[in-house]
Write a structure and sequence with these properties.
By secondary structure, chain A is mainly β. Helix content of chain A is about 0%, strand content about 45%. In chain A, strand 6 (about 65-70) and strand 7 form a beta hairpin. By secondary structure, chain B is mostly beta strands. The chains are: A mainly beta, B mainly beta.
Chain lengths: ~120, ~110
């Protein structure tokens, strides 16, 4: 496909379970971002991957959150021991190699996570 | 901590009215982007402004970047129900070109 894809589109889980969210970026995009968006709010940065560089994990809210990326392709965001406050839409975005002044990001449709 | 403040947070207007959304910061950005997000979807880029004082038009939408590159505005003329959505601004810091700084968004509802 031409766009960023994410799966699953919806995930309902019980408190304490682990979840894994997947993102397939646009082919050729070396940068990949994960964001969290709570209902009616803006985007909260979680983590950033750029090529083979060490990821920028500065936005991860706790050590229950982790993410991996295989080369310049698929990324997975894992949330361990989910809590109710983790309920949100998790968005993935990809972009061309960043270079000022542009860093235009292309977003997937998101995964809506509900923790019961 | 860099912040982008958007105003108003919520806006509900009638079809045909004009509106302006503001995005303000005390920081200088090398560029600023506007995105629109519809329910159940990810944000979609509308425009990127780069030069201080720049004005870009996209049909009924007019985007302006402040002269000092600290603020931006989005003006919609003759709003239509299809304009309904969450409008987000995001700035790229000249010193850190990896991460965008995001505003919290303006939720716009255009009623028929």
């Amino acid at each position: 496909g031409a766009g960023v894809s994410q799966s699953p589109s919806n995930k309902v889980t019980e408190k304490g379970k682990d979840v894994e969210l997947r993102c397939d970026p646009i082919s050729g995009h070396t940068a990949l971002y994960w964001y969290r968006q709570r209902l009616g709010q803006g985007l909260e940065f979680l983590i950033y991957f750029q090529g083979n560089s060490a990821p920028d994990k500065s936005g991860l809210p706790s050590d229950r959150f982790s993410a991996e990326r295989t080369g310049e392709s698929v990324s997975t965001l894992t949330i361990q021991r989910t809590q109710q406050e983790d309920s949100a839409v998790y968005l993935c975005a990809s972009s061309f190699p960043p270079g000022p002044p542009y860093n235009e990001q292309f977003f997937g449709p998101g995964t809506r996570l509900t923790v019961l | 901590t860099q912040l982008l403040e958007q105003s108003p947070q919520f806006l509900s207007i009638q079809e045909g009215e004009n509106l302006t959304v503001y995005c303000n910061s005390s920081s200088v950005f090398s560029s600023l982007q506007w995105y629109r997000q519809e329910p159940g979807e990810g944000p979609v880029l509308l425009v990127t402004v780069v030069t201080g004082g720049e004005v870009k038009k996209l049909k009924r939408l007019t985007f302006q970047f402040g002269d000092a590159r600290k603020d931006s505005s989005l003006h919609i003329t003759a709003a239509q129900p299809g304009d309904t959505g969450l409008y987000l601004c995001a700035g790229l810091n000249a010193g850190n070109n990896r991460k965008l700084i995001w505003g919290l968004g303006t939720s716009l509802a255009v009623n028929p």
